[in-house]
């Protein structure tokens, strides 16, 4: 599936649940305010939010949409450009097939967006594919911290966690405060 015109990171992204009104600095999605934690690969990079996994693939300048073959399934991805396989394999976790999209930007970048099936802060993908494109331990730690802060932001929409630091127990999404009385 292909969707034209998906905005680049930090540039007019689509609105997500939570946040404040349009004139508030918190109206931009969390990852636009706080940056992303990318995992570099030979072909580009990938990163994640609570809800989505983003894959950015550098392709030869002048690539056209008809040169691209992209198959997005719940647990499998395949990408070929000009007949050359770029990426193929079983995804780290399941995604919602109908929500997956790809775009070709400026005829030199393919951006793939996958919607996670499990959108819990404890569901931090440690690699893009099973046994391939794993984030190093430091990047994994930073990704988990980011997802935990994103979860706190969603649970507390009046606060801005985009510049916050976190320490202590944040693995698997951090502490669960849902049972506490308000």
TrEMBL record:
It is found in: Chromosome, Centromere, Kinetochore; Cytoplasm, Cytoskeleton, Microtubule organizing center, Centrosome; Cytoplasm, Cytoskeleton, Spindle pole. Signal peptide: none annotated. Its main location: nucleus. Keywords: Acetylation, Centromere, Chromosome, Cytoplasm, Cytoskeleton, Kinetochore, Phosphoprotein. GO terms for cellular component: centrosome; cytoplasm; kinetochore; spindle pole. One of its GO terms (molecular function) is unfolded protein binding. InterPro entries: CS_dom (IPR007052), HSP20-like_chaperone (IPR008978), NudC_fam (IPR037898), p23_NUDCD2 (IPR037902). GO terms for biological process: protein folding. Pfam families: CS. Residues 39-129 form the CS domain. Residues 1-10 have a biased composition (Pro residues). SUPFAM superfamilies: HSP20-like chaperones. May regulate the LIS1/dynein pathway by stabilizing LIS1 with Hsp90 chaperone. Interacts with LIS1. This is NudC domain-containing protein 2.
């Amino acid at each position: 599936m292909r969707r034209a015109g998906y905005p680049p990171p930090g540039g007019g992204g689509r609105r997500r649940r939570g946040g404040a009104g349009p004139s508030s600095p918190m109206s931009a999605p969390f990852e636009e305010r706080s940056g992303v934690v990318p995992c570099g690969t030979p072909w580009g990079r990938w990163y994640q939010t609570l809800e989505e996994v983003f894959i950015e693939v550098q392709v030869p300048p002048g690539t056209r949409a008809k040169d691209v073959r992209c198959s997005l399934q719940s647990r499998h991805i395949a990408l070929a450009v000009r007949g050359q396989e770029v990426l193929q394999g079983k995804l780290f976790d399941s995604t919602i097939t109908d929500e997956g999209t790809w775009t070709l930007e400026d005829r030199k970048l393919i951006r793939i967006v996958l919607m996670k099936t499990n959108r819990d802060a404890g569901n931090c993908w440690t690699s893009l594919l099973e046994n391939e494109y794993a984030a190093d331990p430091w990047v994994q730690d930073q990704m988990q911290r980011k997802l935990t802060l994103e979860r706190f932001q969603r649970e507390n929409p009046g606060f801005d966690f985009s510049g916050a630091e976190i320490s202590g127990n944040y693995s698997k999404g951090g502490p669960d405060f849902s049972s506490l009385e308000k």
